[in-house]
Protein 1
Amino acid sequence: MLQALGLGPAEEVIYTTLLTCPAASAQDLARQSGLDEAETARILLDLTARGLVAVATESAAADSDGCEVDLQPARYRLTPPSVALAPLLVAQRNALYQAETAFSMLTEQYRTTSAQTAGGVMEVVVGVEQVAHRFHQLQCGAQRELLAFLVGAPIAVPREEADVSESSALDRGVDFRVVADKNYLDGHDVVRDVRAAITTGVELRLVDSLPLKMLVSDRERAMVPLDMADSDGEPSAIVVHRSGLLTALVHLFEKEWAQARPIYTTTTGVREEPAADQQPTAEEREVLALLLAGISDRRAASQLGLSIRTVERRMRRLMDLAGVESRLQLGWHAARAGWL
């Protein structure tokens, strides 16, 4: 945490150890932190010089010759963090502002000088390492939104590496929406990974098929794998920058997203929301509501003006839709799926 303010790992250990002690000597801090005593003393001197730590009052006495002799080693205490760390925070903010300004200027200059060339719109990336590197750049550089199409097994970027970048984006508050090809769930351990992703905040929907794999970062750039490979058979991809082509890719994502079926987690894995023809009809919902209220089949048939066989047939279809074998299970599923 404090490394973001310019403290090194060992300095952060000493600083946070002092948080638990009103005052402590170098020996005490070395023992509690596990660091070497000489290194601890050096760090304390540096932190003192930077105003982050102050030396507490030392106890001393005079010997027989009248010379002062230390009875205890120097003890250190923290300077109030609200005072000591504020300048570091301001400096880091200023550095970040300057970096963002330089980033904006360089990005705009690149767009201006490349606007008339194909390279200004898209670039080809070849090779496993280069494709994986650019993929992580897009995920880790996202500030607002990530959109993705998932098709087939990963080639250049192992799933576990993609999960790390995904988790980092979610931790930053990036919105992450994913549309997956139905066959994608057939892969080994994919259901487990998908369930974990949904739990951590990824919005995931399913479609029967997708035309391509894709990752879109902040609607500023997108990455699409190429079907073709070079002479060595290495994977390749194109990175599309802001352009009409990128707008078309985003539009394609939104179209597929609107038509896709949401996926939700269950106690054993994941389950997709049924398609429209797999949802209960209004008449079936009427039957379900009465029976779950404790009304018998015969009385429900009488109230709805139906034969008892029609009521039983509708209940059978509801149980088939839910994939259950008992009415108790049907009631649980109906509540979970929002049928009532």
Note: The first strand starts at residue 24 and ends at 25.
Protein 2
Amino acid sequence: MAYEIPVTQARAELAELINRVVYGGERVVVTRHGKPLVALVSAADLERLEQLQEAGEEEVVSSVSSMGAVGSAPGERARFGLTAEHRRPDTHG
């Protein structure tokens, strides 16, 4: 659980908050009117978060890339009155 502190108090205690994050391993959430505004996390925590984000993005790209083209089920074109279909450009010259 993160330690929450109002922005006005955080301004006055910034050096102490940095020490709590770096040496105490705490996460600090700075609030304004009781709502989270920013978070102070260690550089190591930030690096881990960025690695997780990149891994998640790579997984999505991999999933989308592995999906093949999906055609209409037989009879669906006639059922919905479709008269045209998208075709990939001919790459054979």
Note: The mean pLDDT is 81.
